[in-house]
Amino acid sequence: MSIFKSKKAYCSAVIVAAGSSTRFGSDKLFATLGGMPVLARTLAVFEGSPYINEIVVVTESEKIMAVAKLCEDYGINKARKIVCGGATRLESALSGVSETDPRADLIAVHDGARPLIAPKIIEDAVLTAKKYRAAVPAVPTKDTVKLANKSAVYSTPERAEVFSVQTPQVFMPEIIKGALTNALVEDLTVYDDAQAVEALGFTVYLSEGSEENIKITTPLDLLLAETILYSRSLSDVQPKEAAK
User: Fold this and answer.
1) 131 burial type by CB count under 10 A (0-12 exposed, 13-18 middle, 19+ buried)
2) What are the tens digits of pLDDT across the range 204-229?
3) pTM, whole model, 2 decimals?
4) Max CA-CA distance within the chain?
């Protein structure tokens, strides 16, 4: 049942950009992707989404000025706040959601290192969360997944029940704030924000994700992202050429 009637939800986006980039070898958020820094490309999609009303960027203290300049250079006008993250992903997400506008009906938490997020994914996640209170974009896994204790397999889950989840993950403010606080206080090991919500007993619903919504973690991921961008540019050009 929808938590709203017909009104459009006010949605705050928290972009978590406070990682150490250890596996990348340098600051991946400022690496160039298609002529733009990765973080700028991420922020630009949320800036252009009619489903996002404000942006809160979470970063490291020493990068706050650099992120502020990036927002200015690339016209990220929805970026209301740039705040300092914590020692862990959980602490950084909690820092961000705690700084969102009190008017927010929903909060979307997104990885700054997912620059290929499509507007439709944001739309679907927000609308699903508006209806069900908690939503995460996901794609069905193509591979058979094994559960193992070190090298010994003890279970093979049904492939139809296994999904790879992405961001933005969207929740009602009181749910995500309470869930992240609980996970921190109880010292829970959580792999994404939705798991913290699940730990409180809430049901999380899936919205449509995309195989192109990859997270930049290693230099190879950046090469793949460049390939995806190039493929998108070809898709934009081909209809025009066909019309000539």
Assistant:
1) middle
2) 999 999 999 999 999 999 999 999 99
3) 0.92
4) 63
